[in-house]
Amino acid sequence: MSRQDVTWREFTEDELAEKRRLFKPTSPEIKLLVSSVGHVAISRRFAVEGGARKLKEMSVRKDDVWIVTYPKTGTTLTQELVWQIVYGVDKEHCRQNIDERMPHLEYIDICPHYENSKPSEDLPLWKRDPYAFAETLEGPRILKTHLPLEFLPDDLLNKGKVVYVCRNPIDIAVSYAHHQKIIRGFEGSVEDFFEPFMKGNVLYGDYWFNLKSAWKHRDHPNMKFLWYEDIRADLPNAIRQLADFLGQEMDDGEIAALSDLMQIDNYRKQYSKENSDKMERRQDKEKLIRSGAVGNWRDKADDPKWSKLIAWVEKNVDGTDLPIALN
């Protein structure tokens, strides 16, 4: 898909009415544009002011590792796993900001702080232009994006490696609702978030397009699919799979050390401590790394809003071989 194949539109009046009911008037969610391909909802800065072009035209290197996910699928956990596997197990690595080690490529385009202004030239390059910063990195580069494969460089899978992380969308919806409350001005309940999430009218848009566009490449030798549920169920095995995919040798001691470091309580403390300079932001970071719970929604299946979300998942899984369990 070329950039010329994609057009962008604003939310309809009905879509805007729903967003205004659930989000603060100043929320960047209200101003998102929606793509004609994949119903990707994202900022104007990315869509039409250069971000989409920069991302699509990035030069892929043979030793690149791209971590591609929909939000709230275990992205941060996977980033740290990949980094520690590639560069050696050492918790001191966590003392450097995660976005400085592994740039979130479109971050500047979706960050609320820069919605109406350009970032200051006084900021370090990794903050003000992650695309340019990525070009300065020596390999192997570990890069992060939440965009579907169609919006990434055409030669990505033929040159670099892709780790795609997925998760049961019901757990994603719950986690994303909490994230939106902290970061993007969402004012409703968790259940209120389900409707715009199912419609793809929140940042990054349609979950199913993102997932299914990657799933069709699951057998490509440069694509590694990881399910968050499998990572949580057997972290040492997930580490072994990743190490094998990345061509890295790890002994049992290194696997055990990394497993201990990446236990959710240990990593939450390390991540929030080393990736925030101010106490109030540190508390927000701790909220962003939540419990990582799997399947806590099952006792709510009789509630109408939850049952609608479950039916939505069933409909989109039907006729596919996606291993998403609802029982």
Portion in strands: 5-15%
CATH class: Alpha Beta
What name is given to the CATH topology? Rossmann fold
Strand sequence of the main sheet, in spatial order? 5-4-6-7
Overall pLDDT: 89
How many helices does DSSP assign? 18
CATH superfamily: P-loop containing nucleotide triphosphate hydrolases
Structural category is alpha/beta
Compute the number of strand runs: 7
Q: Largest beta sheet, briefly?
A: 4 strands, parallel
Rg calculated over all Cα atoms? 19 Å
Taking pLDDT < 50 over at least 5 consecutive residues as the criterion, the unreliable ranges are: 277-286
CATH architecture term = 3-Layer(aba) Sandwich
Tally of domains: 1
Question: Can you write the helix and strand succession as a string?
Answer: EHEEHHEHHHHHEHEHHHEHHHHHH
The helicity comes to: 40-55%
Distance between the termini: 37 Å
Shape: globular
